[in-house]
Design the sequence.
């Protein structure tokens, strides 16, 4: 699991330019299949809600140093993702 921790870093939202943060959050909304009519403010309503979730540490932004990809994840997704990768490493898939 030490290799796993070294492969990923958590990126504080405040470190990202606003356009980049918004693009990551919009991709998260799309990937999760959120109904953008739920907030009454469309995509921007979801982005605002997700920014609040980031502030409450309910979401994280993780950067994969190996794949050079950055994703927004819920804590449950992050934990499951870490377990899946650890299993792959044990099986020699990585």
Sequence:
């Amino acid at each position: 699991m030490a290799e796993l921790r070294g492969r990923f870093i958590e990126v504080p939202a405040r470190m990202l330019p606003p356009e980049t943060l918004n693009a990551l959050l919009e991709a998260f909304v799309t990937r999760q299949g959120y109904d953008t009519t739920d907030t009454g403010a469309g995509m921007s309503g979801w982005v605002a809600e997700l920014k609040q979730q980031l502030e409450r540490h309910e979401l994280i932004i993780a950067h994969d140093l190996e794949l050079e990809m950055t994703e927004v994840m819920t804590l449950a997704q992050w934990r499951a993702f870490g377990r899946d990768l650890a299993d792959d490493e044990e099986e020699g898939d990585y």
Notes: The two ends are 12 Å apart (CA to CA).
